[in-house]
Amino acid sequence: MNQIKHSDCSDEQLFDLVKLGDEIAYQHLYDRFFYLLFAQAKRKVNTKEDAQDLTQDIFMNLWKKRSKINIEGKVVHFLFASLRNSIINFYIKTKKQGEREELFQYFNNLYEETTSRTIHKNELERIIQNEIDALPLKMKQIYLLSRNQELSHKEIAELMALSELTVKKQVANALRILKQKIHYVLFSTF
Question: Residue 128: how many CB atoms within 10 A of its CB?
């Protein structure tokens, strides 16, 4: 068929020629429907570029799969149904991509928070250890036996040859000093 005869063909006749590999028939179908499909896609998706990509994909798939495609009814209905399905798939893909991005952001933020918490925890532990180290020697020993070794006041008193009341007062004084110093350091540092 020559150029003039292609332009006189119906959409269905053009598609039959496309199935046979007729590139001119394909070009005529493209010219007839590209802007109609593009306009429809543009109304349904956010960007002109996405609409153009979706429309071009319809025609690319039409050419690639031409020998396998069987259209029952009008070609225009087939093309618009293909576009509708492409738009649906586009939104599903976009949603999944959005969900992946949200998940990435969640884990990224969680990692940053965890890292930040770890840094603050390590800094706090360092500050506490510095303040414990600054306690008077006997008070420090009693405090560490009480808190780290979890010995009772009675056990500490027997171990250090002190009265239970002295141990109790030393632990209370150590806690009071640590609370004051740590409270001051925390509110002036963080």
Answer: 15
Helix (H, G, I), strand (E, B) or coil at 83: helix
Taking the CA atoms of residue 106, residue 108, residue 110 and residue 113 in that order, the dihedral angle to the nearest 10 degrees is -140
Q: Which one of 1.10.1740.10, 3.40.50.620, 3.40.30.10, 3.40.50.720 gives the CATH number of domain 3-100?
A: 1.10.1740.10
The pTM for the full model equals 0.52
Between residues 106 and 146, the one the model is more confident about: 146
Name the DSSP class of 185: H
**Domain 134-189 belongs to what topology?**
Arc Repressor Mutant, subunit A (1.10.10)
CA 79/CA 59 separation, integer angstroms: 9
In this predicted structure, the answer to whether residue 118 has a pLDDT above a threshold of 80 is: no
Cα 82 to the center of its chain, rounded Å:
31
